[in-house]
Amino acid sequence: MDHNYRTGNGHQGGGRSRMRPGGMVSAYVHPDPEPVVHKDENAAPRIFAFVDDLFFLAKIQEVSRKINVKVEFVKTDQDILERMKNNGNEKPSLIIFDLNNNNAKPLVTIPKLKKELKKGTAIIGFLSHVQGDLKLKAQEAGCDMVLPRSAFSQNLPSLLRRHGSTDEPE
Questions:
Q1: How far apart are CA 151 and CA 89, in angstroms?
Q2: How far apart are CA 128 and CA 149, in angstroms?
Q3: Strand, coil or helix: what is 42?
Q4: Which one of 21, 107, 142, 163 counts the least CB within 10 Å of its CB?
């Protein structure tokens, strides 16, 4: 049996992976995002999340810590309204929903929050890419953006940076 494809001599073994000379597989390493600088370090969180999936909870916490953005995890819409009252009625900039979080009842909670918060607060939901019906229902309920889990993960740093900054966009 001929195993010349293992020597890295230019033959790619069916095109499955691209080997660099010397046997190194090329891979792109994402740089750490730049942290957001806040005028007031004790400012209230501007981003709230209805997430109980431990994988995404940890991912959101890690990214928010790296870019210096506060994200508060909540269980009910009353938690957000209570935080607003305690913070001088400052509206959140972003509310994140795991649309599979049945405890949060997203299709019931989203319209309530939209009615209460009106404009100025974006609501983003994420779900499995095969849940087309749930995506449509979430958009009808008032979600400004519904993303597949993979796209949400990929765009999380830019979403948190955009909505977590206290500076007004130029």
A1: 32
A2: 6
A3: coil
A4: 21
